[in-house]
Specification:
The chain is an alpha+beta fold. The chain has helices at residues 7-12, 80-83, 103-106, 108-116, 118-141, 148-163, 235-251, 258-269, 358-370, 378-383, 390-396; strands at residues 3-4, 25-27, 176-186, 208-217, 220-229, 273-276, 279-282, 284-285, 289-293, 304-306, 322-323, 327-329. It contains 11 helices and 12 strands. The chain is globular, with a radius of gyration of 26 Å. Residues 90-107 have a biased composition (Basic and acidic residues). Belongs to the peptidase M24A family. Methionine aminopeptidase eukaryotic type 2 subfamily. Pfam families: Peptidase_M24 (PF00557).
Length: 398
């Protein structure tokens, strides 16, 4: 889920040369449960036993032990914690440190200290494994002709099932579940769009769709996105963004400067071009969208990772958690706010405000108890049975 640079800050940002034209936007970024038999009895018994003869004991079949599931279902419904009962979740892809930071993987003492910190990563790894399994399923089943609401609910229901938290009971969504609503941004819409109730939009064969969703476990949020397109003409656009993202991840690390990472991302991204319907477009980095740090229960932290070269000397530090996000466009490389609002989040450190509307007070209470500072959307309020909340929403958010 991208962070957006305020317009005032953008004016002061020194951007590397190379800004050109126009159009689409793209981001990279059998049942496992064993059936078990009831205890059964052998009905074979002598009809007329001889006098004084001992009755034969009924034979009992030994109880079958219920096995833990060993594979995921389709759609995903098996708890990831059941698939990994010892909580040894996969580490996923790791990029080695290089140059002056190489000692962090060769120094025995440092590796020992990192192992002591493994508990810090446990919730992230569980959330990452849930995201990976849901992501793989979504990439397999999403097809043109489906409504955006259907696609979003397929992903969100799967995430909730794999965490074991449906989010329907008060406070349940704060334990684990969606880190933020499933974003489904089509074509010129670069990010931050999820269908509201009543949305009738349908995915088309010629669309480019950015799928962006988060998973959290105990407030530790994993943020990852991918792009889907069904026409081969868009392949170079998707390849550009994928390569730029991987380049940014390789450059990331303790003491890396975010402005320099942005320069590497831009250089890779803008080395690509794409031909669409006979016209060749250079692929451009969107300069006012960025990656960002992630804090507990807060998807946007205090540091940003630009995707263009800049003079930002902010360093990545030990203990930081970053989302490296890249956005490639055939347009002019700049986004603006447009369309209906679909994502909402409470600001954690805002000063007290007296609310006049009773509907706003009631809604704020629901938000505090069910989402806290986690982003949510109107569909999430609908799931909780909230009604006639739009006036309250408009008075709480600006």
């Amino acid at each position: 889920m991208a962070a957006q640079i305020p317009t005032e800050a953008l004016k002061e940002l020194k951007v590397a040369d190379g800004t050109q034209p126009a159009g689409q936007a793209g981001t990279t970024n059998g049942q496992a449960e064993d059936a078990h038999d009831e205890d059964s009895e052998d009905d074979a018994e002598d009809a007329t036993p001889a006098a004084g003869a001992a009755k034969k004991k009924k034979k009992r079949k030994p109880k079958k032990k219920k096995k833990n599931p060993t594979s995921q279902t389709e759609p995903p419904r098996v708890l990831v914690s059941q698939l990994f009962p010892n909580k040894n979740f996969p580490k996923g892809e790791e990029v080695e440190y290089k140059d002056e930071n190489s000692y962090r993987t060769t120094n025995e003492e440092k590796r020992h200290l990192d192992n002591l910190n493994s508990e810090f990563l446990a919730d992230y790894r569980e959330a990452a494994e849930i995201h990976r399994q849901v992501r793989q399923y979504a990439q397999k089943v999403i097809k043109p002709g489906q409504s955006l609401t259907e696609i979003a609910e397929t992903i969100e229901d799967s995430v909730r099932a794999l965490t074991g938290h449906s989010g329907l009971e008060e406070g349940d969504a704060l334990k684990a579940g969606m880190g933020f609503p499933c974003g489904l941004s089509l074509n010129h819409c670069a990010a931050h769009y999820t269908p509201n109730a009543g949305n009738k939009m349908v995915l088309q064969q010629n669309d480019v769709m950015k799928v962006d969703f988060g998973v959290h476990v105990n407030g530790k949020i994993v943020d990852s996105a991918f792009t889907m397109a069904f026409e081969p003409k868009y392949d170079p656009l998707l390849a550009a963004v994928r390569a730029a993202t991987n380049a940014g991840i390789r450059e990331a690390g303790i003491d890396a400067r975010v402005g320099e990472i942005g320069g590497v991302i831009q250089e890779v991204m803008e080395s690509y071009e794409v031909e669409i319907d006979g016209t060749t477009y250079p692929v451009k980095s969107i300069r006012n969208l960025t990656g960002h740090t992630i804090l507990p229960y807060s998807i946007h932290g205090t540091k940003a990772v630009p995707i263009v070269k800049s003079n930002d000397q902010t360093k990545m530090e030990e203990g930081d958690v970053f989302a490296i996000e890249t956005f490639g466009s055939t347009g002019n490389g700049y986004v603006r706010d447009d369309g209906e609002v679909s994502h909402y989040a409470k600001v954690g450190d805002v000063s007290h405000v007296d609310l006049r509307l009773s509907s706003a007070k009631s809604l704020l209470n629901v938000i505090n108890k069910n989402f806290g500072t986690l982003p949510f959307c109107r569909r999430y309020l609908d799931r909780l049975g909230q009604e006639k909340y739009l006036l309250g929403v408009s008075s709480l958010f600006y």
